[in-house]
Amino acid sequence: MAKSDQKADLRRYLQDAREALLRKLDGLSEYDVRCPLAPTGTNLLGLVKHLAGIELGYFGDTFGRPSADKLPWDEIRSELRYVRDPRRITRIHYRPVPANMGARGIRRSSRTSHGHSRASW
Length: 121
Hints:
Blueprint: H1 6-25, H2 30-34, H3 44-62, E1 79-84, E2 89-94, H4 103-120
Antiparallel strand pairs: 1-2
Helix pairs in contact: 1-3, 1-4, 3-4
């Protein structure tokens, strides 16, 4: 049985997932990428924003290489929302994508985050 390189496998998996998520935005209008797809207000652009922030913080901090870069949305305060589903009401902290922050800027920040995380490990 061939021995796998787990680090290379994880990097490839993460890169494939990043590219797949960014491809979902291709060809969509600004309205479409911001259109809420769930009761929580989640939208495609919000997912890209969220993952870029998590990846920048998690990989940098975990591997002892915190990023000096600040993402444009770091200073945005979250708002408390209550979301009702058929069984319960859930309390969430929601940080919307600001209207002045377009898909192009979020993609650029996402690439910065990915570059830092790849260099961290």
